[in-house]
Amino acid sequence: MEELIANRYVNALVEITSSEQRAGFSSVLSAISTLFDDAKVAESLTSPLIKAEQKTAFVLDGLGKDCDVKLQNFIKIIGENGRLDLLPAIARKLEQAIQKENNQYNGIILSSNRLEDSEIAELEASLKTYTGSDVKLTQQESTLDGIKVSVEDLGIEVNFSKQRVKEQLIDFITKSL
Questions:
Q1: Rounded Cα gap, residues 138 and 153, in angstroms
Q2: Is beta strand 146-151 parallel, antiparallel or unpaired with respect to 134-141?
Q3: Does the model's pTM come out above 0.70?
Q4: CA dihedral defined by 63, 65, 67, 72, rounded to 10 degrees?
Q5: Contact indicator for 78, 71 with CB cutoff of 8 Å
Q6: Helices (H), 107-161
């Protein structure tokens, strides 16, 4: 449900802003959404005991005086409607909208072995051929015995695991007997 509501706010924000403003707003909203990682801040922003005006003022004070008027008004509307708890979802949805608009997506490679830059570039080129989108992959170390490529916003997840190949081979042999 919160994703649907966040989509409405993001669609409204996209309609009234330029692509440069959206990029700036996205970074600000992402920074605000990290506040929700702190339990005390999250509790105060979601508490029904604190008035909506106080919560909104708290967020706006954190933005400073030089903040864009459209962003201030956007946060005021969210605060007036008691939806400040949706800021992390709105930040995610705005980032997704920007990625879709630019046709550029971010993905993750999980592997126990470090891949060479040329191998990562090859994977990116393969994904571009497959999806028609530019995909920037970053590698993260993992205990996975194989490789996993995930581009969440495109709904792509490819997994090559030694254990999985071994299980499929055993299954194939037992079925053929």
A1: 15
A2: unpaired
A3: yes
A4: 80
A5: no
A6: 117-131
Residue whose tokens read 């864009």: 68
Task: List the 134-141 sheet strands across, edge first.
Answer: 134-141, 104-111, 146-151, 156-161
**Residue written as token pair 């029904």:** 48
3-class DSSP assignment, residue 29: helix
Residue 115 is classified by DSSP as P
Pairing state between β 134-141 and 104-111? parallel
Instruction: For residue 125, give both structure tokens.
Output: 């080129």
Chunk the chain into consecutive blocks of 10 residues (it has 177) and report each block's average pLDDT, rounded to whole numbers.
89 90 91 88 85 88 84 91 91 92 90 86 89 90 84 86 78 82
Q: Which two tokens stand for residue 81?
A: 């409607």
Q: Which long-range contacts (CB under 8 A, 24 or more apart) does 73-78 make?
A: 74/9, 74/13, 74/25, 78/9
Phi and psi at 115, nearest 5°, equal -85, 150
Is the CA virtual torsion 58, 60, 61, 63 positive or negative? Answer: positive
> 127: alpha, beta or left, given left = phi > 0 and alpha = psi -120 to 50?
alpha
Amino acid at 54: Q
Place of tokens 């979802």: 89
